[in-house]
Amino acid sequence: MIVETAAGARTYESRKGALVAEPHTPLTVERVAANAGTGGIFVAGVLAAVALDPRRLQEGVRLGMALARHAIHRHAVTGTAVKAIADRHIAHA
Q1: Which of 64, 92, 82 lies closest to 2, judged by CA?
Q2: pLDDT reported for residue 43
Q3: Could you count the other beta carbons within 10 Å of the beta carbon of residue 56?
């Protein structure tokens, strides 16, 4: 499960019967150039990882956050950038 809070995103997953949370800190306002479309690119990263393997939610959140950060800084995400970011955030089986 992914929850958006004022402090950033937080993911929750079940590990050995216990609910474990992992925080994801947002960028500061000073570092944001534009944020239109970042929600969609974040979701795309999550879905890309989960489509590879439903157990990859944490990797997907990290990928989605990295893609959204890139979009915020660069105003656009190209195919080349997506591949480079994905290669750093998704473990290849």
Answers
A1: 64
A2: 85
A3: 19
